[in-house]
Every structure is written in C-alpha cells, then in structure tokens.
Amino acid sequence: MGKGNLSADLQQLASILQKEKICFDTTPLKNVIGDLKKNQGTYNLQKLKLKIDAVPNNTRPSVTSLEILLNVQIAESVSNENNICNPISTYNFSIEIVGKNEGKTVHSSWHLDYDNAVDSECMHPSFHLTYGGKTMKSTELGNVLLLPAPRISYPPMDAILGVDFVLSNFVKKDTYNKIKADSQYKAAVRRSQQRLWRPYMLSVANHWCKFTNCQHFSINNNLGKEYQPTLID
User: Fold this and answer.
1) Chain centroid, CA 117 distance in Å
2) Residue 2 has pLDDT above 50, yes or no
3) Backbone angles phi, psi at 47, to 5 degrees
4) Which of 157, 149, 115 lies closest to 130 in space, CA to CA?
5) Per-residue pLDDT tens for 201-225?
6) 67 - beta bridge partners?
C-alpha cells in the first residue's frame, strides 16, 4: 500500500464529492490525509457528512432528505499481494443516517464490526455488518424490535470503500454510475478493493478452490459482478 497513492485517492475523492454536491465540507477527509503523513495506513475519519436528496423508496417515516455520517477508524499494514492475509489490526466503521420528519429528527445506523474474539456468546464472522449500534441506544424505537443479529459477513471497508458503499446504496443509479465512470474515482475504488477485498474474497474462495486448482473450474466471468456489482475491473 502506497501512502502517496492513498492520500492522492482521498484528495480526488474529496474533489468529486464536492463537485457532485454530495459533500460540502471535506475537512474530515483532509484530516485523514494529514494522519497518513504521520502514520502510513492508520487514520480516523470522523463524521464525513454526505447529503442524499433522493430518499430511497419505502423509507419510513417519510423524510425529504438524508444526511449520512461516515466514520472509519483503521490501522492497515503493508502486505505482499501474493501473501493472502488480513492486513487490518484496528477497525471501527459506522454509518449514521439522519432525517427530518415533521420537525422531528429520526435516526438509523449501520456498523461494520471487526471482532476476532473466540469467546463470544454467538457465532459471527470476524467482519460483520449489523443494523443498529451505539448511536441508536437513546433513540425511542416505538414498536420496533432492534436485535444485534444477524451479523452479516461483509468485507472490510476503508474511507474510499465506505463512501462507495453509501453512494451505491443511497443515491440514484444514474448518479452513482456517473460518479463511478470518473476515471480517478474508479482508480481509487479499484486500489482499495485490491488491498482489502481481494485477500478477503480469496481467503473464502480457498475453502473450496485451492489456488493451484482454480483453473480447472468453469466460471461465468460476469457472475462476480452480479454478486458484488460495485467491483471495479
């Protein structure tokens, strides 16, 4: 992982988000770039605010717009691409979603946990995506039952992949495809996927397909993108 590449990717991401009027204050990203100058691969992105005007269908209660706050704390080591391992030692990832309904602020939240503990009460993947979290503890839930399960297996995301996750899930498809077509955006996402998703997915694939035998399988080359449509060539 090149410190310069990641810093440049984050700078380009900040420019794209401002140009598309999705983020008006990119200071949190600039702070991360400063963190990377001190410690390669380690940063703490706090409250990057992304504005979503096109509220997804079937959102309840009704809101006119959404603000999404992205938080990513990560310590990532440099790894040889031929050595498939987990490059992450410290990790916290959360998305806070805020809207207004008749003057009342309403909240939602997702978090991607990294928990390698073997003594937990329930089975769960090391990296797992869960609805809820600390930001909703003080929220009045009405008749909603909020559970910490299921813990959905999901690959780790850094700041770049976190932004891409928000855009791919919360903005209109034509807007997302326009951003995704930007060569600099595409290159930034590709590099983060290469660092973080490649070892994750190869590790899972190796359970069935030992690397030396993979060529013997007949594979539909389009299937990977059907399963994970945000993958970048």
Assistant:
1) 22
2) no
3) 55, 55
4) 149
5) 998 888 887 766 666 677 788 888 8
6) 51, 98
